[in-house]
Amino acid sequence: MSDEGEGEGESEEHENGVVDVDEYDDVWVFIEEHDGEVMSVSWELLAEARTLADELGDDLVALAIGEGLDDVAEQALERGADRVLVADDPVFEPYRADPYGDQFRAIVEERKPSIVLIGGTHTGRDFAGRVAVPAHAGLTADVTELGVDEDGLLEARRPAFGGNVLATILCEEHRPQMATIRPGVFEAADPDGEADGEIVEVDVVVEDDDCVSEVLEREVGDTADITEADRIVAVGHGIDGDLEPARQLADALDAEIAASRAAVDEGWVDGARQVGQTGKTVRPELYVAVGISGAVQHLEGMNKSETVVAINNDPNAPIFEHADYGIVADLFDACPDLAEELEGVTEPQEVVQ
Amino acid sequence: MSWTIAVGVKQVPDADEVGIDPDTGRLDRASAPAVMNGPDREALEAAFRIRDQAGGEVIAMSMGPPNATSVLEEAVAMGCDDAVLVSDRAFGGSDTWPTSLTLARTAEALDADVVVCGEETTDSSTGQVPPGIAAHNDWAQLTYAEAVDARPDENRLVARRDVEGGHEVVAADLPVVVAAAYGEFEPRPAPLHRKIYGENDFEPTVWDAEDLEIKDEVGLEVSPTSVGGMETVDPVERKSEVVDDVDDLAESIEEVVA
Ligand SMILES: Cc1cc2nc3c(=O)[nH]c(=O)nc-3n(C[C@H](O)[C@H](O)[C@H](O)COP(=O)(O)OP(=O)(O)OC[C@H]3O[C@@H](n4cnc5c(N)ncnc54)[C@H](O)[C@@H]3O)c2cc1C
Ligand SMILES: Nc1ncnc2c1ncn2[C@@H]1O[C@H](COP(=O)(O)O)[C@@H](O)[C@H]1O
């Protein structure tokens, strides 16, 4: 065996990381920001966590890690946090797993939260384990429903096997009870304008010299939020690289463009617009699936849509079973025709960024 | 300079074949055929690309029951130099904490410079095992890697990572755990002679919890999470009306959006 990696840091007093759970309280929400821009899932979680905290009689604590966080902290208070913890240092910008993980873990071990909620973005899913493993916390990934049971335990529910089953995951003897939650499953609350909680600066425990990774380049463009859209035209592999027909339809319907993972992987549509298990959960009044087969991982993200329409040239495509209305047709004919028929059918919405 | 690259491959029930037991309402995993987790094929391809650049060996590692040997044979057929099965009854009921500990110890025992995993498994789909391995060993990590670039002269591995709304290029010191973004590493065809070797002659090394000195740190007992219940979810009710022409479809849509 190599002699590297003695970094377990598990507390020795307890057998197998079991702790006295009564020493832990409060509900924490990680506020994910990049360059001052907060990911909407963080506000979704803050709204949901307010309910949990009230039910438990706990404080709601927001935690932000980054550089220049005054604005972000203020927003978190306006959106209902009782307290905001900030670790503010250039070492955290841009994001890297190792300094984030080390810092987050240090705050958790010092302050002992009972529940920690993290958005299930690539960033959240990247560092959550670096907190949960050394803290020997329970971590449930990809959660879509939260609740508390009669003993005050967090019930983290997540779909298993393509959404046929919802599993309830509990963490009884370890703390914190951590979960990463899919973007779009909860709704954010509007800020109420009052910010009477406190902002606490925590000690920064990491230094650049100790970091084992370096960001050489970072390019972020389209961060469209499809989770708020009322109407969506989603494209799949069937579009074969040509977005134009779907765009025409989207324009006529005043809809946002979204995509299956296959279309994202091809580079036709940006990943921020991906719907599904490893993308976003959307809840529009109308979801039009264009050239999408209807794989379980895709359905999981679109099932909350009110009405689903499918356009596909394969009569046996599973998407038809999961749609309200469907047409077996070539999308390159059907989309422009439909766009023409529907022109002007919707009142123009305000433009959502 | 050559690198030892360990790849996590997991045996999972074939996602298309998993049914629900009509009597218990539980998933009937047992009757589904066991296959290699799809994203792990791409992890193997990512590992081969690293080997192409840096030289060295690719070793598949799987934690699972004895019959998980079949996915290791397949991994060897696809181009791995060797494979290890980590198998022990003591692993039963492990959640991601002990699972990633076991794989972290296996990677250490192999003296791995790089561990490559899939983005997530199709059965537990947590994506937490790769960061878990990195955390247990206090190694660097590169998740959602869309492309890899080995830099043996710098003793670093560079990856292009998929991030919300774009991408970033990150360099990590060795040892490092990589999770390959699903859909980005098209597996190369297996050479015929490897196929024959993998299927007919190859036997993986087998380690148990004792060998890895983790007997008391695995299984249900040390797993922080437990399953409190399983509910079958009724599929969302849809009308499933298929119309023949665009006019009818436009009419239905108008009713919704008007
Ligand atoms: C771990 C994991 C996570 C995943 N996460 C996600 C996720 O979050 N979101 C997601 O979407 N997928 C996800 N997937 C992938 C998923 O399994 C499917 O592979 C994917 O959804 C398929 O995308 P698609 O329907 O666009 O492509 P395909 O399955 O290739 O379907 C294309 C469809 O277009 C139709 N078509 C072709 N040409 C035309 C035409 N001219 N006119 C009309 N129709 C046409 C075809 O009949 C076909 O039905 C995940 C997979 C894994 C393993
Ligand atoms: N039992 C296992 N044996 C080997 N590799 C595994 C195992 N479980 C998970 N992995 C690796 O970790 C990745 C993510 O798995 P998961 O966190 O379970 O979604 C997989 O794609 C594998 O590469």
UniProtKB/TrEMBL annotation, chain A:
Record has Flavoprotein as a keyword: yes
Entry protein name: Electron transfer flavoprotein alpha subunit apoprotein
Pfam families: ETF (PF01012), ETF_alpha (PF00766)
PANTHER family, A to Z: ELECTRON TRANSFER FLAVOPROTEIN ALPHA, ELECTRON TRANSFER FLAVOPROTEIN SUBUNIT ALPHA, MITOCHONDRIAL
Domain Electron transfer flavoprotein alpha/beta-subunit N-terminal residues, every copy: 27-215
GO biological process annotation, one example: fatty acid beta-oxidation using acyl-CoA dehydrogenase
Gene Ontology molecular function: electron transfer activity; flavin adenine dinucleotide binding
Family classification: Belongs to the ETF alpha-subunit/FixB family.
UniProt keywords, alphabetically: Electron transport, FAD, Flavoprotein, Transport
Automatic annotation (TrEMBL), chain B:
Gene3D superfamilies to which the protein is assigned, alphabetical: HUPs
Pfam families: ETF
Ranges that cross the membrane: none
Molecular function GO labels: electron transfer activity
SMART domains referenced in this protein's UniProt entry, alphabetically: ETF
InterPro entries recorded: ET-Flavoprotein_bsu_CS, ETF_a/b_N, ETF_b, ETF_beta_N, Rossmann-like_a/b/a_fold
Stretches assigned to the Electron transfer flavoprotein alpha/beta-subunit N-terminal domain: 24-216
Record family assignment: Belongs to the ETF beta-subunit/FixA family.
Name recorded for this polypeptide: Electron transfer flavoprotein beta subunit
Source organism of the structure: Natronobacterium haloterrestre (Halobiforma haloterrestris)
